[in-house]
Specification:
Layout: H1 4-17, H2 21-33, H3 39-57, E1 69-74, H4 80-96, E2 123-128, E3 134-140, H5 143-146, E4 150-153, E5 156-158, E6 162-164, H6 168-182, E7 190-196, H7 200-210, H8 222-234, E8 251-258, E9 267-273, E10 278-284, E11 291-294, H9 321-327, E12 368-370, E13 376-381, H10 386-390, E14 397-406, H11 409-416, E15 428-430, E16 435-439, E17 442-447, H12 457-467, E18 471-474, H13 480-490, E19 492-495, H14 501-505, E20 508-515, E21 525-539, H15 546-558
Parallel strand pairs: 1-2, 7-8, 13-14, 14-15, 15-18, 18-19
Antiparallel strand pairs: 1-3, 3-10, 4-9, 5-6, 7-9, 10-11, 12-13, 14-21, 16-17, 19-21, 20-21
Helix pairs in contact: 1-4, 2-3, 3-9, 11-12, 12-13
The structure holds (2S)-2-hydroxybutanedioic acid (LMR) and iron/sulfur cluster.
Length: 567
């Protein structure tokens, strides 16, 4: 099978950079349901633009290319040992070429192997079958959405929903709760795979395998098909929205599988996948290793525009996101807009009605312009003053220029009891683990979207105060400890659009330097020169948190699903 390594390399690149057709149609459907001028609507526009950029630049849709997981069916007689060697070499090549982020980290030492190989990685499941061809499927599922997977053991008492029994209605409650508990942290709007039964291990495996079904297929089990339809009709009533900003679209797909269980156990396992639902497959010739056919429809040419009733919507700056997305590629001569789609073309930010429970925006600073609906676009350069930060309110869109510093799990733990290598007074910390490539000119950013910020909650408040940091950028929001520190010290949390890795890479004009390379590329402290980096204030220095409000609001909505539906 002399071409098998090349075929696997092509599968990896296609999966990482070109969102498949069925997923794009689901994103387009979601966009059609969301008001374009809201934060969620504009986040989806940024996502659409990012999808086109990734395809055009053949670069990772999201910087987190996850735990490469292969499910391979082979006819009898195929040498799986040789296949595994070819897969490893393709993984190494794809990592070296910046199509995968080095993601294999020693769980005890924290050391990143640098080439995505290591104990248990990549994941390769081989199964034999009666067919002649070799069927290879790959999913790249990132850590942030993997962290939102959840497993229920029935019967159980579920928050807001009461008792969940060992029946279809109990399963219904588990699935709704699974969508609720993810909030926006797993980069909603998401897709879920559900596994009913099995033991703890096989239940989760079944859930993940459901993600290999096509988005538009019909469940062969009529009862489960009805449950899938019910979930798709009702999960969006939770109002969590894209990125957890609040909105009409929280879930884009639900696929449910079932298997036998032990008498003592009744597990309902949910695999939560973000909007960057990257899975692809190939049928391979068993003699030559060539690709005979692709198993999921390519995304090329499939619009993520999403037809919407004509609405007075201000087009994003630069070439309209819709044109980029519709073409599926970013035209060669396209100038990537400095002010991103989060900000409308007229310089007005999302015309979101004022966030419930938040005061009207204070007087705009010199660099601000006021959009309708009370939110503003505020241009700031680092280092940022306390006055400028305290003038910001939840809902404002901040467009940043100047130097910012990446920092996530390893750095935050380190800074708790060490000093910082750079002055962080007035600085911006970006929760991001980028894909980076180095050549003779130095380091280049290949993908740089935000990571889930809640993981830094134990450290963030202390670090903000210890070093004088003014803004933290990430996604999914942070908790009460950080919110308190923002008020005491004068800081804000800015929510960037999760998964928009090409979008934000475009705003990074230069890599000034890097510290802590010993933490590995994703965890190092990258000092980046940015221009036009846009993100939304979702936690401000006045005690306001959009995340707390959406969580409270969606909890109340969840409770509406308490009464039995499937009797
Ligand atoms: O690891 C990352 O860069 C992002 C991660 O997938 C996350 O969603 O937090
Ligand atoms: S950052 Fe968001 S889009 Fe990227 S892998 Fe994590 S959850 Fe998915």
């Amino acid at each position: 099978m002399q071409h098998f390594e090349e075929s696997i390399y092509n599968l990896i690149v296609e999966t990482s950079t070109n969102l498949p057709g069925d997923v794009r149609r689901a994103v387009a459907k979601g966009r059609a349901l969301e008001d374009r001028a809201t934060r969620s609507g504009l986040a989806l526009t940024t996502i659409a633009q990012n999808i086109g950029m990734a395809e055009h630049q053949v670069s990772p849709i999201c910087q987190d290319t996850g735990m490469p997981t292969f499910i391979i069916h082979t006819p009898v007689g195929v040498n799986q040992i040789e296949m595994k060697k070819d897969i490893h070499s393709a993984i190494i090549r794809a990592t070296k070429n910046g199509k995968l982020r080095p993601n294999s980290v020693d769980s005890l030492t924290g050391e990143n192997s640098g080439d995505n190989l290591g104990a248990g990685t990549p994941v390769i499941h081989f199964e034999q079958w009666e067919e002649e061809g070799i069927d290879v499927r790959l999913i790249l599922k990132g850590g942030g959405c993997e962290n939102k997977n959840i497993q229920y053991s029935l019967p159980a008492e579920l928050e807001g929903l009461g008792k969940a029994g060992r029946d279809l209605d109990g399963i219904r409650k588990c699935i709704l709760h699974a969508v609720y508990q993810a909030q926006g942290q797993g980069c909603s709007a998401g897709f879920i795979g559900v596994g009913i039964g099995g033991d703890r291990t096989t239940g989760y495996e079944l859930a993940k395998k459901q993600l290999f079904r096509k988005v538009e297929d019909v469940n062969t089990n009529a009862d489960l098909g009805k449950l899938e339809d019910y979930i798709m009709e009702n999960a969006n009533k939770l109002g969590i929205g894209t990125m957890g900003f609040g909105g009409e679209v929280t879930l884009l797909g639900c696929k449910i599988g079932v298997m036998n269980r032990l008498p003592a156990s009744f597990f309902v396992s949910v695999a939560y996948n973000c909007w960057a639902f990257r899975r692809q497959g190939i049928l391979v010739h068993p003699a030559t290793g060539d690709i005979k056919e692709w198993l999921y429809e390519s995304g090329t040419g499939i619009s993520v525009e999403g037809e919407q009733a004509p609405q007075p919507v201000a087009e994003p700056v630069g070439i309209a996101a819709a044109d980029r997305a519709a073409s599926g590629i970013v035209p060669e001569d396209a100038t990537i807009p400095a002010a991103p789609a989060i900000v409308s073309g007229t310089g007005e930010a999302a015309s979101e009605p004022a966030v419930p429970g938040h005061g009207a925006a204070s007087e705009p600073t010199a660099a601000a312009s006021t959009g309708s609906g009370g939110s503003r676009e505020v241009r700031l350069s680092t280092p940022i003053s306390e006055e400028d930060i305290r003038s910001l309110r939840v809902g404002d869109v901040v467009i940043l220029s100047g130097e910012m510093h990446t920092g996530r799990d390893a750095l935050h733990k380190y800074l708790m009891d060490h000093d910082t290598p750079v002055d962080l007074n007035g600085a911006v910390i970006y929760h991001c683990g980028p894909v980076m490539l180095k050549d003779d000119e130095g380091w280049h950013v290949k993908a740089a979207g935000p990571t889930t910020s809640i993981r830094e909650e134990p450290y963030q408040g202390d670090i903000i105060k210890k070093f004088g940091i003014r803004a933290v950028i990430g996604k999914g929001g942070m908790g009460p400890k950080t919110l308190k520190a923002l008020g005491e010290h004068g800081g804000v949390y800015l929510n960037a659009i999760g998964g928009a890795a090409q979008y934000y890479a475009e705003c990074i004009k230069k890599v000034n330097a890097v510290d802590f390379m010993e933490f590995g590329i994703p965890e190092a402290m990258w000092h980046l020169q940015v221009e036009g980096f846009a993100a939304i204030v979702t936690m401000d220095a006045h005690g306001n948190s959009l995340h707390a409000d959406v969580e409270k609001d969606s909890a109340a909505k969840l409770a509406q699903f308490r009464e039995p539906v499937f009797k």
